[in-house]
Amino acid sequence: MALPECQAMTRFMESADDGPSSAQAAAIQAHVQNCELCQQQLQRFQLLARDLESTNGRGAVGAHLTEMDLAHYSALGARAADAHRIISHLSWCSECRHQLAQTVIALREYEALTVVPSQDDPDTWGAQLKRAFSTPARSVMAIAAALVFLLECGSFALALALLAGAAIGGVESVRTAVGVWPFVRAIDPFLRLAIAASLLAVAGIGLRKLAALLFARATHDER
Amino acid sequence: MSRHLPEDERELVELAASCNDDAFSALMTRFQRLMAHIISRTTNDPEDRQDLRSEIIARLLTNRKKPLRDWRPTAPFAAYLGAIASRHCYSWSAQRGLIDAHPGRCLSANTSTVEPELLDHFTAESSVDTPVDALDRSERAELLRTAISQLPDDDRLILKLSFLDEYSGPTIADILGISHGAARQRIFRALRRLERILSETEPGYFE
Question: What are the chain B neighbours of A106 within 8 Å (beta carbons)?
Answer without folding.
Answer: 34, 37-38, 41, 82, 85-86
